[in-house]
C-alpha cells in the first residue's frame, strides 16, 4: 500500500474500525474489496473504504497529521515527483474482477477511476489462473447426460468444458456435485464431465507408455489451462488403455455420497453406467466479461 499525508475529499461511505493506520493497512491487505484506509490526526479509529466508496482524496501537510493509504499493485509511470505518478489496483471477488487507476486530477486531488469491470455468469465462480481469469459453472441436469451432449450444451452458452487447473477447482466442483447427489436416492455415484478427450495416439491398440500415461493420454481445449493439478485420478484410473477400451475417451469427476473418487475416463456417448452411476452434469468454463 502507498501511505501519504492526506484525507478523503469525496466519498459515499466507509467502515469504521478501532485501529492504528498500520493495523488498518494490514486489514485492508487481507480484505479483497478494500482500496484505501484513512486515520485522522490523533484518532484511535480508522476509516476503511471499499471499492466504489471513495472517489477522491487530497494531500495535506504533514503537520496536520492526517494519513491515508491506498492499495495499489504498481505505478504505471515512474516520475521524479510523486504528483506526476499514477497507480493501479484491482479487486477480485468470487464472481467479479474490477481494476482501477488512481491519478491526479486538474484540481490537484487524487481520483479513483474504474478502468475495467468483468463478471461471471450467474451461478459461476471466478478463479484466477496464471493465464487469466476463468469462470467455472457446475451445471446439473434432471436426466443423466453424455459427455458429447455436455460439450455441446456448454458450447451453446459460449463456453467450453472446464479443465481442472488446481485441486481448489476440483474441490469446488465436488462440493456442489455432492450436494446434488445427496438429494437423489436413485444413484450411488455421480459424474460431472470435464475437459479432456483421449488422443488418437493413445487409443487401442496403443499400450501405456511415457507418452500415454495419465494426464498426457488426453488433449485439452480449455484455453486458460496451464497446469493439471486438479486431475487427481481415481484408483487405477484412467484405465482405457489397460482395458483396451475403444470408448473410454472422455473425462469426468467421479464421486459418491461421502467421498471424492477422482477423475475417471468413460465413454463420451454414455449418459449413465447401468443403475449405479449417473453423469449428472458437466463443468462449463468461460472467461468473465463486461456486464451488459
Q: In words, what does this structure look like?
A:
The chain contains 3 helices and 19 strands. By secondary structure, it is mainly beta. The radius of gyration is 25 Å and the shape is elongated.
Do you know the CATH architecture of the largest domain? Answer: Roll
The CATH topology of the largest domain turns out to be: Mannose-Binding Protein A, Chain A
* Beta-strand content estimate: 35-45%
Q: Which whole number gives the mean pLDDT?
A: 91
Strand order within the widest sheet? Answer: 2-4-3-6-1-5-10-9-8-7
- Domain count: the total is 2
CATH superfamily of the largest domain: Mannose-Binding Protein A, subunit A
Helix fraction? Answer: 10-25%
Largest sheet: 10 strands, antiparallel
Q: Please, what is the oligomeric state?
A: single chain
Number of strands: 19
Q: Structural class, from helix and strand content?
A: mainly beta
CATH level 1 class label of the largest domain: Alpha Beta
User: Please, how many helices?
Assistant: 3
Radius of gyration (CA) equals: 25 Å
Uncertain spans:
78-83
Instruction: Please give the alpha-carbon distance between the first and last residues.
Output: 32 Å
Principal-axes geometry comes out as elongated
H/E element string? EEHEEEEEEEEEEHEHEEEEEE
